[in-house]
Amino acid sequence: MSITVESASVARARKRKRTAITLLVVAAILAGSFYYAASYWNRPARTNATCTPTLNPTGPVSPRQVTLNVYNATNRSGLAASVSRLAKERGFVLGTVANDPAKKQIKGPAEVRFGPAGERAAPLVQALVAGAVPVKDTRADASVDLVLGDAYTQLAPAPTNSTQPATDDGC
Question: How far does CA 160 lie from the centroid of its chain?
């Protein structure tokens, strides 16, 4: 049996090769870990909602299908907040509640702003305030804005259950 002895240079070369392979494996593991972490953080949030009501293109619209933004275009403090609470009690889904971002002077009781996607929901919101004026804009979403003006006094009486449209959206 013969024993071969490695030279020092061959041993160093083998050690360098082993170190390089180890570093490559560690770098690959780190890259995989970063990729997994990035995909975890960029994943869309999961909700516990079992049903998302959508606007039925042919049937009636119910308040729970309308995202309502309530804006105050007057100098009465807290008006949008109090009206939004009343609208929520009537079943509307609240979006933004704030002062009018357009900073428009509205002399009438209210203005109802909506885009093409919210056109079917606009009459339902317009019925909240007697004398509200509809204003179509170019927004892409189906939200509807109720902008309260100087002549606003109160919401119109709530419809009775027999006059509210019945919807079957599966929720």
Answer: 31
C-alpha to C-alpha distance for 171 and 166, rounded to whole angstroms: 13
Span 63-148 CATH architecture = 2-Layer Sandwich (3.30)
Structure-block tokens of residue 158: 């709530």
d(CA 21, CA 28): 11
DSSP H helices, 4-159, are 8-41, 79-89, 122-126
Consecutive H or E run containing 68: strand 67-72
Q: Strand, helix or coil at 72?
A: strand
d(C-alpha 36, C-alpha 45), whole Å: 16
pTM of this prediction? 0.61
pLDDT digits (tens, 9 = 90+) for 23-53: 999 999 999 998 888 887 776 665 555 555 5
DSSP state of 142: S
DSSP label of 127: T
Q: How many CB atoms lie within 10 A of CB 56?
A: 14
- pLDDT tens column, 61-111: 889 999 999 999 999 999 999 999 999 999 999 999 999 998 999 999 999
